[in-house]
Amino acid sequence: MATSLQDITNAWGNWMNKQYNGGGVKFTASTNYSQHSELDDYRQYEVQANQQPIVYDPNAPSPEPGTVSSVHTQFRNNSSIPQTYTYKQEETTEQSFTWSVTEDLSIGIEVSASVEVPTVAELGTKVTTTVSFSASQQFSTDHSQTWSVEQPVTAPPMTILDTTMVIGTQSYNINWNANCLLTGYVAIWFNDKVKLSGSNDSHHLYFVKIEKVFNECKQNNLINIKSSEYAINNSSVSAFSSGTFYGGQGVGVQIQVDEQPVGGPSASLAATSNTYMIPVEEDAVLGVEA
């Protein structure tokens, strides 16, 4: 579990109290000012969380290929001339994707966003789901893919055609990470009025930019902040989450044709054994249903 933003601001607040003899700190607040009525008139300073799109690992392993085959359909040409038949078949595959959050955000509020599948898994219809980055959990989307073909096949004289619809599949396992930009001010309330650097008067309440808070934590070793959890930018702080995208789907269809002479492979006929594939246009996908 990530170091919480509240733990970080509290560690900083305790340090600030010692630096300025503040008589103790009543609270520090960042992303959720509503917890303190003293901040009701200062919500414009509240730290904002802006979730950025997730980034998939460019060095992820290639999709793992597979196949799903339909039942066989047989056409028998007992004549001495070629015959053309219409092969019709329909088959269903599952399109199932899961986003697993393994390293979540701990910034005091829930952060969620719509995510898309990685480019390598894009296929026709756009697939999205909403992911919460604030807890270690899984988010899935499942659909049925219906594939349908209607294809003429020609059988040479005295030949049996054994036809099968073969759907190519892919499975995925890709790591991802995401950046949530934190901008705004950390509020700190001292029990005794203090005068901070740059202030003309003494006050209980001050607002300090979040990147300054993190810089002071880092410079003074106030709390262990892992680089995998947070990063300090010029005018913001990045909070990181990460996880894995996995799942699979059908990606294309072909027709496999096995030719055999009437009477079997050992028959002493003019026809010879042969196997070939017929590609099918992409519109063979009839639809994707939830």
In brief:
The chain is mainly beta and 290 residues long.
Description of the structure:
The chain is mainly β. It has a domain at 5-50 and 180-239. It contains two helices and 16 strands. The strands form three sheets. Strands 2, 3, 4, 5, 6, 9, 10, 13, 14, 15 and 16 form an eleven-stranded antiparallel beta sheet that branches. A three-stranded antiparallel beta sheet has the order 1-11-12. The chain has a two-stranded antiparallel sheet with strand order 7-8. The longest helix is centred in the N-terminal third of the chain and has 16 residues, at 5-20. The protein is rod-shaped, with a radius of gyration of 32 Å. The relative contact order is 0.25.
* Straight-line N-to-C gap: 33 Å
The major pleated sheet works out as:
11 strands, antiparallel
Helix residue percentage: under 10%
Low-confidence stretches: none
| H and E string | HEEEEEEEEEEEEHEEEE
Protein name: Cytotoxin Leucocidin
InterPro entries: Aerolysin-like, Aerolysin-like_pore-former
Protein traits:
single chain; 290 residues; mainly beta; 11-stranded antiparallel beta sheet; 3-stranded antiparallel beta sheet; 2 helices; 52% strand
Write the layout of secondary structure elements.
Blueprint: H1 5-20, E1 25-29, E2 48-51, E3 55-56, E4 64-69, E5 73-77, E6 83-103, E7 112-116, E8 128-132, E9 138-155, E10 159-183, E11 185-194, E12 203-209, H2 210-219, E13 230-232, E14 237-261, E15 274-279, E16 285-289
Antiparallel strand pairs: 1-11, 2-10, 3-10, 4-10, 5-10, 6-9, 6-14, 7-8, 9-16, 10-14, 11-12, 13-14, 14-15
Helix pairs in contact: 1-2
Organism: Fibrella aestuarina BUZ 2
Protein name: Cytotoxin Leucocidin
